[in-house]
């Protein structure tokens, strides 16, 4: 491998150890490479920082983030919780089942894993503890279920992958639905088994059909969001960016004028949260895109293809190797940076063995989403431990069963393409 590439990755690793945010770590490492390699030009990084963000599909990111912020500050999460309670509250471990199902619904609103943990966990963790559920278990359920936020469309990571690789964001949104349901089902099964063993029962009786319909009616505006977004995109009416704008305006109208939950103070918090989150994402996008261009200049994608296919031509073994590699990367690297750097690098490898780019995108996102559950970069763990006021160590142990079942689900998604591609046929 070229010394400049080694220098860049050594620099990134060093800066991450020192606690430098991933976007700045990549940018500083690129600046070091520019110092030693004059062929890159003195304005390379500036040009890439500007050019990489001058893309229409990327506008969807801040709008989906703002829509999620509005719904988080409003009452939609609470209304979705009531629907979940009516559907599965009577099952063994009912509160845990409600947490997973509400996270599934809320993931279709926020597109963010930490936001899903914050919104659902902020309500469910105290409620579960009050109902005598163990605090580590209650927090682990909400923390693990938060990963559904990056898979159930609309999803910011899916948008980033689509922009980085040229794959249709609309197709990725549709492809993420069934894998998201599979993972949700796996988390509910684990919740059931643990609850059965620990004696966590559900509510006394199943909700009547009338009670269910009342809950659905109260949550009707929240339940319409994924229909509006996906229906517009898949129906060819809107692009993902236009759908994001519609979702934001819709959320403003519903929470501001119908539910009347959006005060001026909350609106300020929404705008502040949107700006801060979008800025942190775009710094990573810009610097990681610049790094991707350097890797292309130095022919690293072709070298990666030759290296991995030189180890084995067996597709099963190759995909297992890629999954193990991504699981390791996810423990210490930010998911968006990993998508931007590794997506374009590994895509030629998997297409070489006949894997569909959309299928690979879902596999990649599912894999890297597990990084939200693994220290030291497990963002969901930090959010969950902050809400529940328990140590990161206790939560990391409690989340292990959910992490293991998610890896099993990942294997199914990897080796059964129809799980991802069925709705696209």
TrEMBL record:
Entry's localization field: Cell inner membrane
Keywords on record: Cell inner membrane, Cell membrane, Membrane, Transmembrane, Transmembrane helix
Broad class of where this protein is predominantly found: membrane
InterPro entries, sorted: DctM, TRAP_DctM
Membrane topology qualifier: Multi-pass membrane protein
One Pfam family it belongs to: DctM
Positions of transmembrane segments: 6-36, 48-67, 104-125, 137-160, 172-194, 215-237, 243-262, 274-298, 304-328, 335-354, 360-383, 395-416
TRAP C4-dicarboxylate transport system permease DctM subunit domain residues: 10-419
NCBIfam families cross-referenced by the UniProt entry: dctM
Protein name: TRAP transporter large permease
Species classification: Bacteria, Bacillati, Bacillota, Bacilli, Bacillales
